Amino acid sequence: MVFLSHPKESSRPELSNHLLVVAERTAQLLKESGFPEKADAGFYCGLLHDIGKVNPYYQKIFEADESQRYSIKNSLSKRFYPGHSWFSTLAAESLLPIEDKESVKAILMAIAGHHTRISKLSRTCKHYQKIDGPYLPTIVKTLADVKENISLFYEETKSLAEFAPLDWNRCQKQLLFPPYFGDSIPKETNNLAFIGCNVLFSALLQADRGSFHEKTTTNFSVNIDTSNLVKTSPLAELRSKFQKSILEKLTFSDNLLVLEAPTGIGKTKVFLDAITRLNQKGNFERVFYFSPLLALTDDFESKLKNVIATEQLEKVLTYNHVFTGTLDEKDAGQEKDDENHGHDLFTDLAAGKRWFEQESFNKEFVITTMQRFIMTLYSNRQNDKMKLLSFKNSLLILDEVQTLPKFLLQSVISLLNQMSKKMNFKVLLVSATIPHELTKLSKLSCPNKIKQQYLKQIQKQILFDTKLDLTDGTKLTLGKKSLVMTNTRRKCARLFSILKTIHPQDNCYYLSSGVRKKTRQERIGKIKETEDALVISTQVLEAGVDATFSTIYRELAPLDNIVQVLGRLDREGQYGGKSVLTIFKMSEGNYWIPYQELEILETEKLLAPRQGTIEIYKKLEQYYHNVSEKNIQNKNLAAELDGKINRCDFDEVWEMIQNKVFPPDERETVIIPENESQWHEIYDFFMTPKKSKKTTKFMDLTASLPNSIYKLGIRGLFIEELLEKGILLPKIDCIEKLYDETVGLDKWLTQ
């Protein structure tokens, strides 16, 4: 018999052929990525990753006609245990002709997790031992069949030189369940063991998922002309001087470089020009742009569309939880969902290639989020880790880097330092405010003379009034275009209900995550265009959004957040230096939430009742130093994370990141249709069998509840059948009860 790796109608169904292709690709990817010393381990990773598919469960399914497969799965699962990754791991443990224990364990971890996640072998063993109770007879019976079929597979492949080094005799003697795997991987300095395991895992995933398509390599070829970003403004000449001075000094002699300059001075144009400059000196494969906010991502996309030709939009991938696809697809209203439009990726090669290019970041220009960057570095899940290898030979731009949690910065820099040297990529960290943890990196700063001229020209008054009570809206002194920003949605909703009655305006806007994403983006667009508005908002307008106001009221926040919001105040110097930022304090309960108390207390010490822009910028260095020195909690967290990384405890690393960087949130995402026909489209989509509940298809119609539906007591407003799938779609006659067209789901904060 000929063993199969995929259904018989696939383009390359033979198991031996699939294993050889993946083995060669994995090894080649590791060589291309700066890890030639791991090429042999990568080869055996690929050669053995699917050998567990000799399991009769898979062979009978792959041999069956497509129309019969679904019906025979149930009966087969009662006779055989369908765990090909685990059986591959058990077989590989005895087949591998490698003496180095560290390499063996790295290979086995990659094989065991290539459809789930990379984990320490002891944890993987415990997982299978937990489920072996009722399944144990089935597992033992299946293992015997696998063992027998491995003998037959040896007969099939013994003429192939690549399979000859495998220890087939030892496999027949030692293949058993449960096995014993020790935990220790010898510690290397500078996180290299952790990096090496992750890179090996990523290479296997890319080789496996991409094995049905011709291997393609990208060379960055997007032509960027930033002349359209030059604005007619009193600040135009200073911005031009700043940009010219930065580009003249840009060398990237070190792999990590910090770009520091005041908000609004034109950093986006600088790093877009830098891309062109660097690409002329030495081609790289792709450019990544990571931003902390979707509003900033959208703003960057709109700027990028102004500087590249329409026919090049297909080279740009935008990847986030609202939309995934190329920019030309986004303009055309097309996107993929997690069901890949119902295509079988093994038989529909076009759909499979498109999916693979997106999920492996195999595009020339990738626009995504800082959250995705953190997930790629620290997550142990296969869909996240597959992207890691695409950092090779590339340029990574981390915008508004100060938004990264302070305890995480040391680890991020350490990992990027080591990886960039091996994988030949460059990192540009961009911000107006540079945390203390980054001060040892090479810095490309705005020349002091230009900076002082710029800050003087955009000089703004900054007032700190601890007694200002905005709940008495009569004390609010509005300019022509005013922004009131709070730290929480509850405060935002409360102030809006007060201010909209005292200061009635036609152009009065409310912005928070409680407002439908599409509506929120439309409002931001209108705010940017209008010259007369009152905006009450959470931090969604704080950084990166190219909107300007004559007056801003900002609730007390960390000093770097205050500096960021200054970039939204009189951005073009059009209000003649009369614009004012007023910091107010809403002293109720833990008033520092959602920030750390220490950051708020240190900011209060540095704020004066009245000061200017120049004084605020001068205080940043002292602020960051104080916070870094006094924050024992951050130091302890950084040390804890470093310890988990050095132990290569992938699960614990990711669990810590999830808990400390992406803490659990009881708020739930609701789909809010704009009209009745849209409601029916959404309902029909999710009620169709096999449709994924994780689709991004309708994410631009989502808004966030301030709490769970159970705590709010509103379960009865939603479609019961979809609740069981984890999808929150209101009943068609309950949308108006649930969602307010002005404040969205934040209406439940004032109930």
Description of the structure:
- The chain has 751 residues and is α/β, with parallel strands linked by helices.
- It folds into four domains: 15-209, no CATH class; 226-448, P-loop containing nucleotide triphosphate hydrolases (Rossmann fold, 3-Layer(aba) Sandwich); 458-630, Rossmann fold; 669-749, no CATH class.
- The protein contains 30 helices and 17 strands.
- The chain has an eight-stranded mixed beta sheet with strand order 4-3-5-2-6-7-1-8.
- Strand 11 (508-511), helix 21 and strand 12 form a beta-alpha-beta unit.
- The N and C termini lie far apart (69 Å).
- The model is unreliable at 337-343 (pLDDT under 50).
Assembly of the depicted chains: single chain
Question: What is the terminal separation in angstroms?
Answer: 69 Å
User: Helical segment tally?
Assistant: 30
Strand content: 5-15%
Mean pLDDT: 88
Q: Roughly how much helix do the residues carry, as a percent range?
A: 40-55%
Q: How is the largest sheet built, in terms of strand order?
A: 4-3-5-2-6-7-1-8
Query: How many domains would you count in the coordinates?
Result: 4
Largest sheet: 8 strands, mixed
- Computed CA radius of gyration, to the nearest angstrom: 28 Å
CATH class of the largest domain: Alpha Beta
Low-pLDDT runs: 337-343
Instruction: Tell the overall outline.
Output: globular
